[in-house]
């Protein structure tokens, strides 16, 4: 240290400022200055870009403050290493922190010019300067101190360089230098620079490419090849000449390369969600992780980790599903329409979010219909308030009714309109304390409905009366268990008509619970995060719990699949796999919904009216997606979005049917009477009971069926009945009198089962 200080006392000024300015600086002053500095400079981790991957490991977005990917020295071309050492510090492996020979050379040159013409800093000293500048970040004062042309800075750099040389190997220092250096045009570190300028990894850089990159380091702005290609080429040639001078390459090789252009192949590295293949899913992931307190004590710390931690974020998105969702939404609602369309896809049994799409692209150009609001996710993740979900909320009363043992065959006369006193609605704490009564009316006609037809036709007065039977407590609790939060002010009898705001992701998550036979899973956009070294930082396991008996969910599915069958509101959008669904339309037709699912995928489609000022308006009378809407309904406006997207992904889904509801567990399930002809009474009874029916004894009848076995049932095979209904069994005498045979020959409906086939 004393020897270095003595030399520095004479030489350091000549490296940074005119020699005349520091004549007389004593060696002991330098030594004292160095002794007052901290012994070491911490080599803090360098900022690296974070990668967000889809479920198959494909890159969908990058986040970074500095476009950098650290690599080991072994992952850097030997040509690149030789080029940078040749031009910056050719004796790097032969001297310590201070290159005395280089320093003397710089001093003589600077003295002759009475100014700073040549530097004498070693690679280690340069790495120190870069480290100080990197750690300064946005602190302007610290950044100025790291670059000022002063004696103090040179002393400080040298002190830290000595410590680095003492504690680390030459290879470690060179590796950090190559990773920390700025190569211009937003590229930090050799790997990012190689990818940016040449579209290849640092391992594969050639001599000409290496020489250009080595030359840029001296002045990344002046020698930026994208802005100043001629200057970059001149600087590259200087590096090639130096390599030839040092016999790293032959002069002939140098001249041959100098005769060629830079041959750039620029690869821009997108930054942020706007340029992602799935911008709003990406935005959801970022907001989701920024709220994860395990990733940092403050939102700012978590944001900094995401943008500079070099993380690998593994997500649940399926890009094929995303493409299908984007296309379906884009075809139905245009960006500049006075409407917003959205679609969310969620996988039952895992909660994995497979796709998020909306009609307004991400961006700040309002005239083009762009927005940064994410309308398809909960407010805490997207800053949008959501939309009234209409009759899609009725399923929570349906499920509660089934759970409470109310038979699906229960019939309720339902007029066009009625008024129900508030006191008839039971809450968890007694009768609802409202101001009077709830006037409710239908838009689907009147009549007498059971739980099947009342749901499939979405009859308001039917469900209002059903809610008086179930009470409000259980349905509201079930909705909450399935991911829907209602504020106290909206816990009113009319909540089942969807007066609360929601979003497609929340509703897809809720309906996925029915597809999963009562297993509710929180929406999950991320499965794992790895740190910059590839080690697991945090995993995000499935968060699931059973909130509904499987038999109850099976019954709900049985009811809702009728929506997709002939006569149902969704019959025109049904896909080639078993599916179920529910429509939703709010009062005033401001928003319409269709939520449907298969056992493997749930999706919620929504279209809401919104003018250019962001105010919600009716869809009636609007032109949306190029088509005029006279009156908007969930089945006609939102349904086709669901149908198009699900049809596109259907080939990727295995064929899987819903579990048929068990009649012995759910009252009133509609099921077909099984064929029991020819069975023993005991076997036929067991078969009927397994189907949810009660077996009755009708005695003996003439039949050619083996004696004592069942000849037929009444009602007959294939008749639709509710679980719990009685099916009478008739046993065979084993013979048929001739008169009955003649009569039976004219009975086209007997099919050998006797005259009773069509009975009932």
From TrEMBL:
InterPro entries: Beta-lactam/transpept-like, Glyco_trans_51, Glycosyltr_51/Transpeptidase, Lysozyme-like_dom_sf, PASTA_dom, PBP_transglycosylase, PCN-bd_Tpept. The keyword Hydrolase applies. The keyword Protein biosynthesis does not apply. Residues 665-733 form the PASTA domain. It holds the Pfam family Transgly. One of its GO terms (cellular component) is outer membrane-bounded periplasmic space. It catalyses: [GlcNAc-(1->4)-Mur2Ac(oyl-L-Ala-gamma-D-Glu-L-Lys-D-Ala-D-Ala)](n)-di-trans,octa-cis-undecaprenyl diphosphate + beta-D-GlcNAc-(1->4)-Mur2Ac(oyl-L-Ala-gamma-D-Glu-L-Lys-D-Ala-D-Ala)-di-trans,octa-cis-undecaprenyl diphosphate = [GlcNAc-(1->4)-Mur2Ac(oyl-L-Ala-gamma-D-Glu-L-Lys-D-Ala-D-Ala)](n+1)-di-trans,octa-cis-undecaprenyl diphosphate + di-trans,octa-cis-undecaprenyl diphosphate + H(+); Preferential cleavage: (Ac)2-L-Lys-D-Ala-|-D-Ala. Also transpeptidation of peptidyl-alanyl moieties that are N-acyl substituents of D-alanine. Gene3D superfamilies: 3.30.10.20, Biosynthetic peptidoglycan transglycosylase-like, DD-peptidase/beta-lactamase superfamily. This is Multimodular transpeptidase-transglycosylase.
């Amino acid at each position: 240290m004393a020897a270095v200080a003595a030399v520095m006392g004479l030489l350091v000024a000549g490296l940074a400022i005119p020699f005349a300015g520091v004549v007389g600086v004593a060696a002991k002053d330098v030594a004292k200055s160095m002794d007052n500095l901290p012994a070491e400079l911490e080599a803090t981790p360098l900022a690296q870009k974070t990668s967000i991957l889809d479920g198959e490991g494909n890159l969908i977005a990058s986040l970074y403050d500095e476009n950098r990917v650290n690599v080991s020295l072994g992952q850097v071309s030997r040509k690149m290493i030789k080029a940078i050492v040749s031009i910056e510090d050719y004796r790097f492996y032969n001297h310590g922190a201070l290159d005395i020979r280089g320093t003397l050379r710089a001093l003589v040159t600077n003295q002759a010019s009475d100014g700073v013409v040549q530097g004498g800093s070693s690679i280690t000293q340069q790495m120190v300067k870069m480290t100080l500048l990197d750690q300064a970040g946005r602190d302007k004062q610290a950044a100025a101190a790291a670059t000022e042309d002063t004696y103090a800075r040179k002393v400080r750099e040298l002190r830290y360089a000595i410590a680095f040389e003492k504690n680390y190997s030459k290879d470690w220092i060179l590796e950090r230098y190559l990773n920390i250096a700025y190569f211009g045009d937003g590229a930090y570190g050799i790997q990012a620079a190689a990818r940016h300028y040449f579209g290849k990894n640092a391992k594969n850089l050639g001599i000409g490419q290496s020489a250009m990159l080595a030359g840029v380091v001296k002045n990344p702005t002046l020698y930026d090849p994208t802005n100043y290609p001629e200057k970059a080429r001149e600087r590259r040639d200087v590096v090639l000449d130096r390599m030839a001078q040092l016999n790293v390459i032959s002069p002939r090789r140098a001249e041959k390369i100098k005769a060629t252009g830079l041959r750039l192949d620029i690869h821009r590295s997108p930054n942020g969600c706007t340029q992602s293949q799935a911008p709003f899913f990406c935005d959801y992931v970022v907001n989701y992780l920024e709220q994860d307190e395990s990733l940092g004590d403050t939102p700012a710390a978590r944001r900094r980790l995401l943008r500079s931690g070099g993380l690998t974020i593994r997500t649940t998105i399926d890009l094929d599903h995303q493409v299908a969702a984007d296309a379906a939404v884009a075809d139905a609602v245009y960006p500049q329409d006075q409407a917003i369309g959205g679609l969310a896809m969620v996988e039952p049994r895992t909660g994995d979010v497979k796709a998020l799409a909306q009609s307004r692209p991400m961006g700040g150009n309002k005239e083009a219909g762009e927005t940064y609001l994410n309308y398809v996710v909960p407010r805490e993740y997207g800053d949008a308030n959501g939309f009234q979900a209409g009759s899609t909320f009725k399923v929570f009363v349906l499920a509660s009714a089934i759970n409470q043992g109310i038979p699906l065959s229960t019939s309720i006369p339902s007029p066009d309109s009625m008024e129900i006193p508030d006191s008839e609605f039971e809450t968890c704490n007694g009768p609802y304390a409202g101001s009077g009564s709830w006037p409710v009316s239908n838009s689907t006609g009147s009549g007498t409905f059971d739980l099947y037809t009342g749901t499939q036709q979405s009859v308001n007065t039917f469900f209002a009366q059903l809610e008086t039977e179930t009470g409000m407590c259980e349905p509201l609790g079930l909705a909450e268990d399935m991911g829907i939060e209602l504020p106290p002010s909206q816990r009113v009898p009319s909540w089942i008509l969807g007066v609360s705001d929601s979003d497609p992701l929340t509703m897809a998550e809720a309906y996925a619970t029915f597809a999963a036979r009562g297993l509710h899973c929180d929406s999950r956009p991320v499965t794992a995060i790895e740190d910059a070294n590839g080690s697991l930082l945090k995993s995000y396991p499935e968060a699931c719990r059973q909130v509904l008996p499987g038999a109850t969910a099976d019954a709900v599915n049985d009811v809702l699949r009728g929506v997709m069958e002939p006569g149902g509101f969704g019959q025109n959008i049904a896909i080639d796999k078993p599916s179920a669904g529910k429509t939703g339309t709010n009062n005033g037709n401001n928003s319409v919904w269709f939520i449907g699912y298969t056992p493997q995928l749930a999706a919620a489609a929504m279209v809401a009216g919104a003018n250019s000022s962001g105010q919600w308006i009716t869809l009636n009378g609007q032109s949306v997606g190029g088509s005029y809407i006279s009156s908007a309904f969930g089945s006609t406006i939102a349904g086709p979005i669901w149908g198009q997207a699900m049809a596109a992904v259907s080939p990727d889904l295995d064929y899987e049917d819903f579990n048929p509801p068990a009649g012995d567990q759910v009252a009133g399930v509609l099921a077909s009477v099984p064929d029991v002809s020819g069975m023993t009474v005991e076997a036929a009874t067991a078969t009927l009971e397994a189907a949810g029916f009660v077996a009755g004894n009708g005695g003996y009848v003439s039949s050619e069926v083996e004696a004592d076995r069942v000849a037929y049932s009444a009602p007959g095979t294939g008749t639709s009945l509710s679980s719990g209904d009685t099916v009478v069994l008739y046993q065979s005498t084993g013979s048929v009198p001739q008169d009955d045979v003649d009569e039976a020959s004219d009975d086209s409906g007997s099919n050998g089962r006797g005259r009773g086939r069509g009975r009932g």
